Amino acid sequence: MRKLIDVQLTFIISPDLDIAGFQELSSEINESHPLYTQLTEALARVNISIPDVGLHGVQKEELQKQVGGFYVAHAQGIEKHCRQINGYWDQHGNDFLRTCDELFSRNAFMEVTEFIAYPTLWRVYIQQMKHSAISFPLSEDVHGSDEALYVVMHELLHAFFYQYVNTMPNLRNRVDLWDIAEIFNSIVMSQDRFKKFYPSHAITNYPLHDKIIREIVASGVNNSAELTIMQISNRLKPQSQT
């Protein structure tokens, strides 16, 4: 049996990663996206207006100037917050990773085992696969003491999920893989074995996923990632593969 994985998570402050994160988000989020308002409000916070062509039209030079200025102006608070979340991870990270390893029956984490966690000002949290980086909220954007740690774990679980399903040919090319991933996280992270890491945080779902989540929870949630993924994918409408 393979030994437990030793995932390394390093916390850093990086305006460059935050800019790269925005560029990734701007290519995916349009006006109909449920996170569009949050992202545009964050842009306004750094005095950036949305071009007529949309979010993807924001120039990198403007991002570098405004984002750089934000990080300089708020350096002390951001550094304190980053240290605090790093400390929370040090307290709970190993237990979280053991729980994830059990969830995936010790078959996940085949590729990337070193990740970066960085605070973001965009109010939308992502994993940047190219940089093996995940983002978490600034202190002024959280709604409780456990939310930032929850976001770190949520995004890390996404990274594990995508590595796991990459070994499953019947799933990895589904066009609704994002939906499967979000539903999976909502179900799994509401279980007591995960909820203990962020007891004060109230988990919310995307409204379009509520019905499937309720059906699966009512039918009985199991402890296996493979079986949970099967429950989800079987309830979604059949999707063509690319």
Would you tell me the overall average pLDDT? 91
Count of alpha/pi helices: 10
- Read across the widest sheet, the strand sequence of neighbours is 1-2-4-3
The 3D shape can be described as globular
Query: Low-confidence spans: pLDDT under 50, at least 5 residues?
Result: none
Q: How would you characterize the largest beta sheet?
A: 4 strands, mixed
Strand fraction equals 5-15%
What does this structure look like?
The chain has a four-stranded mixed β-sheet with strand order 1-2-4-3, sandwiched between helices. The mean pLDDT is 91. It has 242 residues and is an alpha/beta fold. A hairpin with a 4-residue loop joins strand 3 and strand 4 (133-137). It contains ten helices and four strands. 52% of the residues lie in helices and 7% in strands.
